[in-house]
Structures are given as structure tokens and as C-alpha cells.
Write a structure and sequence with these properties.
The complex is a heterodimer.
Chain A (H helix, E strand, L loop, with lengths): L15 H11 L5 E2 L2 H4 L16 E3 L4 H14 L3 E4 L16 E4 L6 E5 L4 E4 L5 H8 L4 E2 L12 H7 L6 H4 L2 H4 E7 L5 E5 L10 H5 L8 E8 L1 E2 L3 E9 L2 H13 L6 E6 H11 L9 E9 L1 H17 L4 E4 L3 H12 L1 H8 L2 E4 L9 H15 L3 E6 L4 E8 L6 H18 L15 H7 L2 H14 L14 H10 L15
Parallel strand pairs in A: 2-4, 3-4
Antiparallel strand pairs in A: 1-2, 5-6, 6-10, 7-11, 8-9, 8-10, 12-14, 12-15, 13-14, 13-17, 16-18, 17-18
Helix pairs in contact in A: 1-3, 9-14, 10-12, 10-13, 14-15, 16-18
Chain B lengths: L2 H14 L3 E4 L14 E4 L6 E5 L4 E5 L4 H10 L2 E2 L12 H7 L6 H4 L6 E7 L5 E5 L11 H5 L8 E8 L1 E2 L3 E8 L2 H12 L5 E7 L2 E8 L1 H11 L5 E2 L5 H9 L11 E5 L12 E5 L4 E5 L5 H7 L3 E6 L2 H7 L7 H14 L15
Parallel strand pairs in B: 1-2
Antiparallel strand pairs in B: 3-4, 4-8, 5-9, 6-7, 6-8, 10-12, 10-13, 11-12, 11-15, 14-16, 14-17, 15-16
The chains are: A alpha+beta, B alpha+beta.
Chain lengths: ~500, ~350
């Protein structure tokens, strides 16, 4: 396995016995874990390559206990890492070796579901899919559907601003959350947003969603529910050339169509998936597109006809339209199983999350092909094509010396190219600890300083999830020494050491 | 005008601690609190920087008139889905800084839902780039969206990138004779179905409903709703009607002082005097008059009231916007300080303390 990461900067020194004694005063025994064997399951999140063992794990059962834990940590100057289901892919919930993990797993109740107002008030430990399941009897559902939706929780979704395959039409978490209740590191309770539109003051909801546990701890989330469409159908199109498939995506959008989902998989991805799922994918195609339409039957028929026409004009070699709900789910099953399918053909894989303008897709894919040669590793590509969010899956074997380092360098190269092509290092997985260096590529000193000032406005001593999401300028200076772009050194104003 | 002109002006004001009043076309001078400081005209910093229909974004400088942007979008069959008011020549910067959306808000979302990126000049004259031109971007805090509705108190939104959407293929307007309670009731029922409702407007016993979307969906919805006994043919041109709602030139908005109440859409009639209109499926309600008890009633319903059109002295005295809790206000002040340490940008426009 890869090395355990040292604690990310900045450094803290916590007296373990003092901390545990203080936590025992505010939490019952069954809400506090401190034995190594109990702590071990918390040492990483979905990104297993980065690990650290916390000093304690707190499992509060009510909001008062969350307030007490935060106040205690604030008083003692101890780092706090909030955690939902731990399915995140960027190490955002990786513990701090000198700190505590604050698990919201026991906040697992749907507090209110109002089918008339079409909203649900849930605790942060409620699973994403559980919200849609609870809303289903009313013909409603919660739209954001990250692929981990059977396990991931709403609190984590808020922290990461999670997306999913339907966000082109239905939006990200930020578009589907109306209100959160947040506890600051000082234990102060804030109500942010409301069920009414246009909450007065700054749009703090937008700031908190996607803030990766750096600004506060969420104890309640109010989400929008939307009526479940009467019908959904998928068009599956094959292309002999990935560039052609990329152009077809742009052509669909240019034709004024916003599909419910628009996904692409390249040949290595379909080859990995098909034996596993038997979705019926065309294994001769260089890439396949899945384009979903939803709405009333008449609406879907109209849109499917338009999509089919555009795909034909774009040079699709084969087009199939799902003829039943079972077939639609089978077409999607392959896409949804892409990660585990790749996991079957390689000991380890490393999933990237860059976004690029759609029109640069072909360029990106040919660059990735060249990188496969350079780093000596294979890569399968699945792609939320509709919104330009690429998930290259870099295959490696952690047991072989040097392979993880090559995979990491390969991933960094993809992210930095995403920025160079006009995109972003992360579309939906978050920065966490994983992409902390690439933040220095996407942003320059003034923005990073502004992020630190925002952080300080919420958490002056930097105790919430330290070392994640926003790099220190010193880290950027160190990283910049390795990455000189176009002969220009980033952060020239900083001392070098 | 170039970006450096704005940077230079703000730096100078920062050094001299001179308050600045950021102003585009001035179409929303009436909105918010105090108008204080030397006018920093930004209308001259204008022009569309990039527009890529197939990437669904447009980037333009703050002084660009909305009319120019919407014309460019209409050329390619696209639109600003939040349907912002233009008033008298509104610019993009003011549109996003004020965060006011129009009738389509109930279907498409608010201004901030469409903000993808902002080039900001903060209160020290630094140029900061947040967000970008891609639909999904979770690197760093989402400052671009935070700026929507900040009324220029955190910086000049020098360049803005918005997500754009295709225009609906079909639109239909239906009118029903319903009183306030019946209208709210119907809207609640319709909202739970997959109907393509893009706008609602109730005034004086009439509920106007706009359907927008795929042809088949609009026709199916029209078939479903058009058989109601309360159905009436529209008395005026539907497009003109919705423009008069968006621009608030409709007679429903003529009262003064005019209050804008945002409440959960399912809130029952508040039973207060002065109701002149409601929009957004019941989420936005307009009242004219002195506004006795409006703030309390809105808050009790889980919403808030804005003193929307009233003499400046009154807006300053009472606060245009509902007051924040002490903890939230303190947080706002810290954020304000993070972007504008000298407090020179639009002081008092959002809250007296900012």
C-alpha cells in the first residue's frame, strides 16, 4: 500500500489525555471512540491512498452534543474533521492525526417530508437515495444523484456540492438545497437560507455548499423535491471516433436540447464494463453516448426524435433507443458500474474529476492517450459529457513500487491540462487533500488569500478540516518550484526555501 | 474604459478611504438602502467577451446592457433563464449585484443559480478570478454565487460569466378567474404535477399562468388546464403582459410604498391589507401601503419582507431588507471586511452596518 500521509500542514499539538477527558465530559461513552482498533475504520475516506489515524472519533446523537464537541475542540485548539458516510473521493474526510473526527452518522432521520411544499428536512447522515425513496410514494424525488447515492449522505453532498448524471438539467446540490442549519467551530448556531426565495443578506448558502467542511458543521438540510417524470428513455449511440462523439455532444446542446443525462464512455471503459454488466454496449465503437430524455410521453417522443436526428447528422454508426424501462436501466447499469468494473480488471484505480469546455474533449482524450504512454499506465474514460466533467480512471497496482507515484503524477497532469483548456481541477469530487497542489495551478495568490480570509471569517483559528481544500501559500510556493508554466514562475512574490 | 481604470479608481479610494457608490445604468437606484459616496460609473466597461452557444455560457463586462446580451442570445435561440428586469437600461453588473430575477424564476431558478464565474475587483483594488466558464466547478469556495445579490458591497463585478439556456420551443399563457386563496390552492396542486409552469401572476381576481417547454408538453398541459370552468381568454397580448410583470410597469406595481414579501410558496393568504399581486407560484407577494405588521407576518410564515420602493429616507431608517440576527450580522461584517477592509464600497446599500 502507499505510504501513510503525514498530517497536512498547519501543525497542531494535542494532548491526547486532556482531549479525551474533555470529550468524556460532554459525550456519553458510547458516543466516543478512542481505541486504535475502533479508530482504524475512520483512517481514510473513499480515497484510500491517503490515510491518517485521528485521536478520537465523536459520534454525537443530538445537536447539543455537536455544539459541545465543537466548543471543546475550539477551547483546546484541536482540529475537527466532519464526516458523513466517508464515500468522498478526494480525501476531504481524511482525519487529522492531531484531531478528532466528528461523525454525523447518527443524524440519520428525515425530520419532515412535505409533499405539498415539495421539500424534505433531513439530518446530514441521511443517505442520498433514502430521500428519494421516502419521497417516491408522493411521486417526488431528490434530483442530485451521485453514483455513490446508495451510501453517501446529504451532509457530505452539501460539503462537496455533489452532482450526478442528471445535473445538466436538474442542477447540482447548490441548486437543490434551500436551507441548512450550521454550527460554527465556536458552537454558534446559524440558519442559512430558507424555504422562501431570496433570503436577505449575502448568499451564504452558496458559500457553504461545497465548502468541504471548512466553514461549519451542518446539522439539518432542507432539500427541494421534484415531481418524478412520467417517462424516461435513453438513446445509445456508437461512434467510430471520440472526436466525433465529442462534436455530437456539442451538436445536441446547440440544437437547443438539454437532455436529462448525457454521458460518454470510451472503448477501454465499455470493454471493462460489458463482460461485468452485459449492458449491450457496442464493443467496436471508439466511444458511446448515452442520452436520456424525460417528461411526459409526448414530450419524450418529441425530444428523442430530435436527439436521434442530431446524432445521425453527427455521424453515429449505430443508434438504439431503450424500448422498456428494463432496457433503459440496463443501458445505465453499465455507466453506473463503470468504476467497479474497472476495479475488476486492475488491482487499483485512481479516479480523476476535471472539467473542461465540451469542445476541448477530443484534445483532452488524445492528450490522455499520450500520457498513458508517458506514465506507462492504462486509463479508461467515463465522462459526464453534457457538463464537461471527465472521470479518467487511471489503472495501477499499488503493490508495485513506483506505480502509485506514476498514477499520482498522471492524475496531476490531467488536472493541470483541464485548467489549461479553460476548465477546473474538480467538477464534483472536491479538492480535499488530493488536489490541494493543483489549487495552486487553478488560482493565483490573490484568490487563495481571499479564500483564507473567508475561512477566517468563519473559523479564525483554522480548526475545521485544516490542510484541506485551500492550500497555504507556502505549499504553493513549494509546488510552484516544480511546476513552472510558460517560463513564468507562479507566486513570484513569495520567498523560496 | 479598461479594467485598469476601475482598478486605479478603487485603489485611490481605498488609500484615501473615500466611499464609492458603484453605478451601472442606475436603473436600480431605488433599490436597497443608502446611496452614499462618490459615483464610480462602470457603464463604460462594457462588451460581450465570449459567447459559446454550444457551451451554454456567455461572458460579458459589467457595463454591458442586458438588452445587448439578450439580443445576442436570442440570435442563437437562447436566453437568460432567470428573466431579469431591465427597468431603464439595466446592465449585467447591476443585474447580478442586485440578484433580482423575473417571472421565470419559479421554473428556472434565481440569478445566482446561473452565475458560473466572476472577475471581481475587491475593496483594495485587487482583481480576483472566481469560478469559470464550465458548468461544474467545485475548486475553492463558490465566491461567484456569493456575489449575486451582494449589492456591490464586496467588490465590483467587473466581468461575469452566466450559464444560458435554450429558449423554450413553445409558450402558452392561460388566464383564470380566481381569488387569492383559490389561486394559491390551484398553484399548489399544479406544482406537484409535472406541468411546464414557467410563470404565475395573480392580480385583482385573475391568475395568469405561463406554460413553457417542449411543444407536446405545453399542449398537453393546456389541454389539461384549459378545460377548467374558471378559464378565460387572455385579454391582452400575452408577451406584453409578461414584459409588464417583469418590468413592473403593470398597474399592480404602482402603489407606494411597495413591499416585496418572499414566503414559502405554500403559505396561505396572509390576510393583510394592501395585497396587489403575487408571483412565483405564491412565493413572492407584493403589498402597497405603510406595511404595518408585514415584516412580522412574513417572518412568521418563514419568509421576509423587503421595503422595495419607498423614499430613500424611509428605506434608510427602517432598513430596506429584513434585519439579520446578531450572529449572522457579525458574520456578514467579517465577510465584508475580508473583501473591503476599509468599508468603501456601497456602504449602507445592503445593511447600515456593512
Amino acid at each position: 500500500m502507499p505510504d501513510t500521509m503525514a498530517s497536512p500542514e498547519p501543525s497542531f499539538h494535542t494532548e491526547r489525555s486532556t482531549l479525551l477527558a474533555a470529550l468524556r465530559r460532554v459525550l456519553p461513552a458510547h458516543c466516543l471512540l478512542a481505541e486504535e482498533a475502533e479508530l482504524r475504520p475512520y483512517e481514510c475516506d473513499g480515497l484510500t491512498a491517503y490515510r491518517a489515524l485521528p485521536l478520537a472519533v465523536c459520534l454525537p446523537e443530538n445537536e447539543g452534543q455537536v455544539v459541545d464537541v465543537l466548543r471543546t475542540c475550539h477551547q483546546l485548539g484541536v482540529p475537527v474533521v466532519a464526516r458523513g458516510a466517508g464515500t468522498g473521493l478526494s480525501g476531504g474526510a481524511m482525519p487529522h492525526a492531531e484531531g478528532v473526527v466528528l461523525s454525523l452518522a447518527r443524524f440519520n432521520k428525515i425530520l419532515r417530508l412535505d409533499p405539498v411544499a415539495r421539500l424534505a428536512v433531513v439530518q446530514p447522515g441521511v443517505r442520498n437515495l433514502a430521500v428519494s425513496e421516502a419521497a417516491a410514494p408522493f411521486g417526488l424525488y431528490y434530483a442530485p444523484d451521485p453514483s455513490s447515492q446508495i451510501a453517501c449522505t446529504l451532509g457530505g453532498n452539501v460539503a462537496e456540492n455533489s452532482g450526478g448524471v442528471h445535473c445538466l438539467k436538474y442542477g447540482l446540490t447548490v441548486h437543490n438545497v434551500l436551507r441548512v442549519r450550521v454550527i460554527s467551530i465556536e458552537g454558534e448556531i446559524f440558519e442559512i437560507g430558507s424555504e422562501a426565495p431570496d433570503t436577505p443578506g449575502y448568499d451564504l448558502l452558496a458559500l457553504l455548499i461545497g465548502s468541504e467542511g471548512m466553514l461549519g458543521v451542518v446539522t439539518e438540510v432542507t432539500v427541494k423535491l421534484v415531481p418524478k417524470p412520467e417517462l424516461a428513455q435513453v438513446v445509445m449511440a456508437s461512434f467510430n471516433d471520440v472526436a466525433q462523439a465529442g462534436d455530437a455532444v456539442a451538436a445536441i446542446i446547440a440544437a437547443g436540447i438539454i437532455p436529462a443525462g448525457l454521458e460518454m464512455m470510451d472503448k477501454p471503459a465499455t470493454a471493462a464494463v460489458e463482460p461485468y454488466v452485459k449492458a449491450g454496449y457496442d464493443l467496436n465503437a471508439a466511444a458511446i453516448l448515452l442520452c436520456e430524455s424525460d417528461g411526459t410521453p409526448a414530450e419524450v417522443a418529441e425530444e428523442i426524435a430530435r436527439v436521434t436526428e442530431v446524432l445521425q447528422a453527427a455521424g453515429a454508426s449505430e443508434i438504439r433507443v431503450s424500448q422498456s424501462e428494463a432496457e433503459r436501466l440496463r443501458f445505465w447499469a453499465g455507466r453506473k458500474a463503470a468504476f467497479p468494473a474497472v476495479g475488476r480488471i486492475t488491482p487499483d484505480y485512481y479516479c480523476m474529476d476535471g472539467t473542461i469546455p465540451r469542445k476541448r474533449l477530443a484534445e483532452m482524450l488524445s492528450a490522455i492517450a499520450a500520457m498513458e504512454q508517458k506514465y506507462g499506465l492504462r486509463c479508461a474514460n467515463v465522462f459526464h459529457a453534457g457538463d464537461g466533467n471527465l472521470h479518467p480512471l487511471i489503472m495501477y497496482d499499488a503493490a508495485r513500487p513506483g506505480e502509485w507515484a506514476r498514477a499520482e503524477a498522471f492524475g496531476a497532469a490531467i488536472l493541470e491540462l483541464s485548467v489549461a483548456l479553460g476548465g477546473s481541477i474538480t467538477g464534483e469530487h472536491g479538492v480535499g487533500i488530493e488536489k490541494i497542489n493543483q489549487m495552486c495551478v487553478q488560482f493565483s495568490t490573490p484568490e487563495i488569500e481571499a479564500f483564507h480570509r473567508i475561512k477566517a471569517a468563519f473559523d479564525e483559528n483554522g480548526l475545521l478540516n485544516p490542510g484541506k481544500a485551500v492550500p497555504s501559500l507556502h505549499r504553493c510556493a513549494e509546488y510552484g518550484r516544480m511546476h513552472v508554466h510558460g517560463g513564468e514562475l507562479k507566486f513570484p512574490e513569495l520567498e523560496r526555501f | 474604459m479598461v479594467l485598469d481604470d476601475l482598478v486605479t479608481a478603487i485603489r485611490a479610494a481605498h488609500d484615501a478611504r473615500t466611499p464609492l457608490r458603484i453605478r451601472g445604468a442606475g436603473s436600480k437606484d431605488f433599490y436597497g438602502g443608502l446611496l452614499a459616496g462618490e459615483v464610480l460609473g462602470v457603464a463604460g466597461y462594457r462588451g460581450i467577451v465570449a459567447y459559446e452557444p454550444s457551451e451554454l455560457y456567455i461572458t460579458a463586462r459589467c457595463g454591458t446592457p442586458l438588452a445587448e446580451i439578450e439580443a445576442a442570445l436570442a440570435d442563437k435561440g437562447q436566453m437568460l433563464a432567470f428573466e431579469p428586469p431591465h427597468f431603464a437600461g439595466a446592465t449585467l453588473g447591476g443585474c447580478v449585484a442586485a440578484g433580482l430575477a423575473g417571472p421565470r424564476r419559479m421554473q428556472a431558478g434565481s440569478v445566482r443559480d446561473f452565475v458560473l464565474g466572476v472577475k471581481l475587483i475587491d475593496g483594495t483594488g485587487q482583481v480576483l478570478d472566481f469560478g469559470g466558464q464550465v458548468m461544474k466547478n467545485v475548486a475553492g469556495y463558490d465566491v461567484s454565487r456569493l456575489l449575486a445579490g451582494s449589492l456591490g458591497t464586496l467588490g465590483v463585478l467587473a466581468e461575469i460569466t452566466l450559464k444560458v439556456l435554450p429558449r423554450p420551443l413553445a409558450e402558452r399563457t392561460l388566464v383564470f378567474a380566481l381569488d387569492e386563496a383559490e389561486a394559491l390552492n390551484k398553484l399548489r396542486q399544479w406544482g406537484a404535477q409535472s406541468l411546464p409552469l414557467s410563470a404565475s401572476f395573480w392580480h385583482d381576481g385573475q391568475l395568469w399562468l405561463r406554460l413553457a417547454g417542449a411543444r407536446a408538453a405545453v399542449e398537453a398541459a393546456r389541454g389539461k388546464l384549459g378545460v377548467m370552468p374558471d378559464f378565460q381568454p387572455a385579454s391582452v397580448d400575452a408577451e406584453k403582459h409578461w414584459i409588464s410583470v417583469r418590468e413592473q410597469t403593470h398597474k399592480a406595481f404602482a402603489g407606494s410604498p411597495l413591499w416585496r414579501l418572499a414566503v414559502p410558496g405554500t403559505t396561505a393568504p396572509l390576510g393583510l391589507d394592501g395585497l396587489c399581486a403575487s408571483e412565483w407560484g405564491g412565493g413572492l407577494r407584493w403589498y402597497a401601503g405603510e406595511g404595518e405588521g408585514l415584516r412580522q407576518s412574513a417572518a412568521q410564515a418563514g419568509g421576509h419582507a423587503v421595503l422595495y420602493r419607498a423614499p430613500e429616507s424611509r428605506r434608510c431608517l427602517e432598513g430596506a431588507f429584513a434585519p439579520l440576527s446578531p450572529a449572522l450580522l457579525a458574520l456578514h461584517r467579517r465577510l465584508k471586511k475580508a473583501f473591503d477592509p476599509q468599508g468603501i464600497l456601497n456602504p449602507g446599500r445592503l445593511y447600515a452596518e456593512l
